[in-house]
Amino acid sequence: MRRKKTPRWLQAARVRGGPVEEAGRADWLARALGRSGIMPQQAAEQAIREGRVKVEGRLEREPFAPVRLGATVFVDGWAYRLEAPLHVLMFHKPEGVIVAGTDPEGQGTVFERLRAVLPPDMRNFEWYAVGRLDRDTTGLLLFTNDERVFQHGTSPEKHLPKRYVAQVAGNLSEETLARLREGMVLEDGPTRPAGARLLAPECVELVLTEGRHHQVKRMLAAVGHPVLALHRQAVGSVALDVPVGDWRSLSPGEVTAGLGFQAS
Ligand code: URA
């Protein structure tokens, strides 16, 4: 059996014997800078390696150096405190952009679009997209600076409902809707029962409690109705209510009651 590789941050923590847990969460310098909104993680790694970051007055050149929340850091001589505010944002994804770090086709990424509309004090967080939408899918995409929210939102065990509206080719019948509701077998296994409601002869609302790759398109193709356009309206009970390309912060109540996330 292959042994699991020790992560870099843990190696660095062991070498130093420093604190690695803060309220049950391991943290290292580059990630802590991203989580605190001081600078995104990749930029932070570069700044640390270039010798531009001090922690509690000491120059630190190791991005994986363990740090504690509350520590004072200096970046290019400016003082900051390492904090862990929890942010979850809704973003209305436009068509054409991808959920990835870079776009080989040059149409742009959701991260670029989001940063372009965020105010300066929100731009320097490390933002994680909570799940994926295809390039041609529009609608609700959540972002967070907290990996626990990311894990909660993408975990296959949580069964967080996601509501989609699909425009399809051909008129959908009641029998087809019943097949979608009951669950069907796709090449990667059976689907869970889903909500399916006809909105117009060629338009269906689907509520899925799993997030498999291209799942909506594959389910509708399997029943003979290829998807022509797909839009995500809601995740949990959080419904999209901002215009295309725009964003807003979720309230703490939306994060807990709407997404079912409990910070431990
Ligand atoms: N299902 C799909 O097929 N595509 C998406 O973008 C989201 C869900």
Automatic annotation (TrEMBL):
Pfam name, any one: PseudoU_synth_2
PROSITE patterns, per database record: PSI_RSU (PS01149), S4 (PS50889)
Protein name: Pseudouridine synthase
Keyword RNA-binding: yes
Organism: Stigmatella ashevillensis
Pseudouridine synthase RsuA/RluA-like domain location: 87-222
Gene3D superfamilies linked to this entry: Pseudouridine synthase
Protein family according to the UniProt entry: Belongs to the pseudouridine synthase RsuA family.
UniProt entry tagged with the keyword Repressor: no
Highest taxon listed in the record's lineage: Bacteria
Source taxonomy: Bacteria, Pseudomonadati, Myxococcota, Myxococcia, Myxococcales
E.C. designation(s): 5.4.99.-
Keywords: Isomerase, RNA-binding
